[in-house]
């Protein structure tokens, strides 16, 4: 499985945008970029995914670099409920293989 | 998205015993997976539960230690056998949904403590 690199942790102020980076220089042409997050004491939940084009949904936006070797998850206005571990995952088959993820802390 | 009921939510077990964890889904799903999350760590995939055939295990996990059943498209069990304190983890069931509610859905997990 192709590897992703994320910062160990990030901090944000409430109500401000958050940009969570992910590097995936060994991504193959058929790998989808998935983002999941895990809130405290819960199972992971789906956030967003994309292949080549930028994507938006009600939770977040995903900006994918033109060469696809990096991507950024954008939370437009962080709230305290967004404090979680965010996982960037490359998926070429049917299995989700989790890396270490980024711990996002949100300050009020 | 699919709704997963996982039981038990937590348990404390004696070493050398076995625990069976149940995963019930409210709709038929093709793919079901079992993960382990050790304290303070990320999730590790144990196996893919295949309906009507033997589970497919990831490297480092074996059927004798983690037998899995998948009798139908809505139910699976994971057994943690001959437990030791190193098996203390959260075990999570996950399913894959196609279509409008795309994505993987996870159960809330079973927190296992082996003493």
Mean pLDDT of chain A comes to 94
- Tell me the structural class of chain B: mainly beta
Distance, first to last CA of chain A: 38 Å
Number of helices of chain B: 0
What is the distance, rounded to the nearest whole angstrom, between the alpha carbons of the first and last residues of chain B? 36 Å
What Rg of chain A, in angstroms, do the CA atoms define?
13 Å
Q: What would the principal axes of the Cα set say about the shape of chain A?
A: globular
Q: List low-pLDDT spans of chain A.
A: none
Strand content of chain A: over 45%
Instruction: Supply Rg of chain B.
Output: 13 Å
Main beta-sheet annotation of chain B: 7 strands, mixed
**Main pleated sheet of chain A:** 5 strands, mixed
What oligomeric arrangement do these chains adopt? heterodimer
How would you characterize this protein structure?
The complex is a heterodimer of chains A (108) and B (115). With 108 residues, chain A is mainly β. Chain A is built from no helices and nine strands. Helices cover 0% and strands 46% of the residues of chain A. In chain A, the strands form two sheets. Chain A has a five-stranded mixed sheet with strand order 1-9-8-3-4, with no helix packed on it. Chain B is mostly beta strands and 115 residues long. In chain B, strands 2, 4, 5, 6, 9, 10 and 11 form a seven-stranded mixed sheet that branches. Chain A binds chain B through residues 36, 42-46, 49, 85, 87, 94-101, and chain B through 1, 31, 33, 35, 42-45, 48, 92, 94, 96, 102-109.
Secondary structure topology:
The complex is a heterodimer of chains A (108) and B (115).
Chain A: E1 9-13, E2 18-23, E3 32-38, E4 45-50, E5 55-56, E6 61-64, E7 70-75, E8 84-91, E9 102-107
Parallel strand pairs in A: 1-9
Antiparallel strand pairs in A: 2-7, 3-4, 3-8, 5-6, 6-7, 8-9
Chain B: E1 4-7, E2 10-13, E3 19-25, E4 32-37, E5 43-49, E6 56-57, E7 68-72, E8 75-80, E9 89-97, E10 103-106, E11 110-114
Parallel strand pairs in B: 2-11
Antiparallel strand pairs in B: 1-3, 3-8, 4-5, 4-9, 5-6, 7-8, 9-10, 9-11
């Amino acid at each position: 499985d192709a590897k992703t690199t994320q910062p160990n942790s990030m901090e944000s102020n409430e109500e401000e945008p958050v940009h969570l980076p992910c590097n995936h220089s060994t991504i193959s042409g058929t790998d989808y970029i998935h983002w999941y997050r895990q809130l405290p004491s819960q199972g992971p939940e789906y956030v967003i995914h994309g292949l080549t084009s930028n994507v938006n949904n009600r939770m977040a936006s995903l900006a994918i670099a033109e060469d696809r070797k990096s991507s950024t998850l954008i939370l437009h206005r962080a709230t305290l409920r967004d404090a979680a571990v965010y996982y960037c995952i490359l998926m070429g088959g049917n299995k989700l293989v989790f890396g270490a993820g980024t711990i996002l802390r949100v300050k009020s | 998205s699919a709704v997963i009921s996982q039981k038990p939510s937590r348990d404390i077990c004696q070493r050398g015993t076995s625990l069976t964890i149940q995963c019930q889904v409210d709709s038929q799903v093709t793919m079901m997976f079992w993960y382990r999350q050790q304290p303070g760590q990320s999730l590790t995939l144990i196996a893919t539960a295949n309906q009507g055939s033997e589970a497919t295990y990831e490297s480092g996990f074996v059927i004798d230690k983690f037998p899995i059943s998948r009798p139908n498209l809505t139910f699976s069990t994971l057994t943690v056998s001959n437990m030791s304190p190193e098996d203390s983890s959260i075990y999570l069931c996950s399913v894959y949904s196609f279509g409008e509610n795309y994505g993987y859905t996870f159960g809330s997990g079973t927190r296992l403590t082996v003493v």
